Each structure stands twice: as C-alpha cells, then as structure tokens.
Automatic annotation (TrEMBL):
Taxonomic lineage of the native organism: Bacteria, Bacillati, Cyanobacteriota, Cyanophyceae, Nostocales
Gene designation: tal
Protein name: Transaldolase
Enzyme class: transferase
A single MF term (Gene Ontology): calcium ion binding
Annotated InterPro entries: Aldolase_TIM, EF-hand-dom_pair, EF_Hand_1_Ca_BS, EF_hand_dom, TAL/FSA, Transaldolase_1, Transaldolase_AS
Pfam family, one: TAL_FSA
Compartment(s): Cytoplasm
Native organism: Scytonema hofmannii PCC 7110
Amino acid sequence: MSKNLLEQLREFTVVVADTGDIRAIEKFKPQDATTNPSLITAAAQMPEYQEIVNQTLLQAQKDAGRGASQKDVAALAFDRLAVSFGLKILQIIPGRVSTEVDARLSYDTEATVAKARDLIAQYKAAGISRDRVLIKIAATWEGIRAAEILEKEGIHCNLTLLFGLHQAIACAEAGVTLISPFVGRILDWYKKETGRDSYPSAEDPGVLSVTTIYNYYKKFGYKTEVMGASFRNIGEIIELAGCDLLTISPALLGELKATIGDLPRKLEPSKAATSDIEKIPMDKATFDKMHAEDRMAHDKLDEGIKGFTKALETLETLLAEKLARLDGKSTLSHATKDIFHVYDLDGDGFITREEWMGTDAVFDALDVNKDGKITPEEMGAGLGAVIQMVEVAK
C-alpha cells in the first residue's frame, strides 16, 4: 500500500506543528512545535484549556503583588502562559518548542535578550533543558544581534518573520540555530501586487524564496537550519520537500495525511553544493540597503510585527477581562471597543482579514457568520465566550 504524503515527507524533512492546540499535536505527533501570540490566543479561548489559562493568570496576579493593575498582570501572564503551553507541548513531542519574545521588543536588542533569558529561566525552573526550547525573535537587524548574543550563551533561537535573503544571510552569519522564512505571506504580497489569483506551486514566490535561502546555506556550509513556514496550500509544501524543517498547520497536516501519492524530494544539499551562487558579505549597511530595496520584505516584516503585536494586545485584553470578572469588575464593553478600534484601520465598522494581520485561526474564531468581516458584535461575542468560561473556575 502506498504511503501518504505526510509519511513520505517525514523521511527527509522534520515536520513541525504550527499550533498551540495540544489536541492537534497529540493527533499528528510532530517532532517539534511552534507557537505565537495569535495561536495562543486561539487556544486560550478553547474550553479544554481554561484550567491552564486560569491557573497561570491567578499565579501572575499573585506574583505581581497588591496594587498591580489588571493590564500589568495580563502582560506578566502572557509570558507565563506561553511557557505553560510550551510545557504541555513538551510532554507530547520528542523535540523542541518555539516560544516567542514580545513582538513589541523587535527593535530593542537589550530588551529582547533580557526577555529571552527570562523565558529560559522559567523553563529551567520547570525542569526543561534549554536544548528543548527555541526562542522566537523577529528577524530585524536588532533581533538578529540579540540572537547572536543569546546563541553564544547557549540559548538557541528561531528567527521569524523572515522574507528576504539579506535577513537569512545575517542570521546565518550570527550563528542562529534556525530561521523560519514565510512562504504564504510572500505569496499573499505578490498576489496583491500583481493582481494574480494564483501561481503554480513551482513558481510560487514564497517557494522560490525559501529554495534560494536553502541553496545558499548548503552551498556555503552554514549550520543554521531552514524551516519553511506560513503555508497556504500543500502544493507549496510538496515543492519544498527536503527542506530541513517545515512548520505546518493542523489543517494542512490533515490534508497531507489524507493524500496518497509519490512525494519526490525537491531540495537536496548535494545539488545546492554545486549550484552557481555568489556569496554576499553582510553588515548593517548592506542589510539596510537590501531591506530598503526589497519592498516585499520591508512591507511584510513591518506588517508581521504589527500583526503579532495586535494579537498580543488582544490576548492581554482577554486576560485582563478575566481578572475583571474574577474581581467582580467586568468591563467587557470597554474591552471590546478598545480592541475593535485597534484593528478597524479604516474606521468603517468592520475588521477585514487584511486589517486583522494576525493568524487566520483567530480571525476565523471571531468571524461567527463567516462573511470575511468581524463586526463589533462578533468581537464582543468572542470576548464574551471567554468570560463565560471563567465561571467554571470561580
């Protein structure tokens, strides 16, 4: 009997689950797993994870001390919650979990280093070796410099929101453990820019970008691992079979598992070693120049940081609302209004998928009637569902 595509992919690529949903990780049994604020926000709204959320939030409130505002407690709880989910995930997978540094620190090297050290300390206190954790940092110049410092301390990093070759080269020269070039978001940009509805998988701009990075790394012997991320369809995954790692959503993992057929390896170190590629020396001036000239990378890095920041702000607001409910001071209408205005960029009373800029999982959870727009009422219902869950813990 023929193997399914997921089984074949695992023969030459490490499969990573791009989710905070522990059920999905248990189902697909990936080697590694990665999370971000949007994914944790989605998971935190599921009833089965409320015990984790509530315990983490109440402990953060205790640790913050008397007089701490709900907002401050919620901010403290985010890091704790990311680690709490990471610990649960590490009980299931044999490999590593990626835990993200606050996206609002993306242009602050010192603050990123401090936050990463704190996250590693939390894992250590729970008995987890730093070899099982990747600190996820945005691939800004400042973020890459932070990763360079951390790697020298034995803290391994996953550089995310990576769209351009200049970012990849800078990461490799900094000795970063792993990079996550974004395939689907690159495709999104080119579709919008060109007006095309689709690209053949072999011509997909995101696929071509990751292929270029992979070949560059193997040609010049860099040890940094390449993990393709942000896929829109299994065609992209098929074209990148052989990449060091691929982080894939549960929906696409399911599609791969359900598909029978041959999966040839597309990326090979031996082929890359004989390719005709010119080495590019990288310093800040070169990085800044290439970043300014690569409009796609410039736009998507900025958009990605804003999107992760908004997802984090949403999660913090949800956590603050839980605290308010526990204290008998619910402010749901104010929370809904504040979050809605953050995302409704054009002020038309709707949040579109493009305005959202976070992950599809959270948008889909809030878009109750599935019309591609989130109304204030739907936003309120989404927050309200979380508040109702708190009743169980009271």
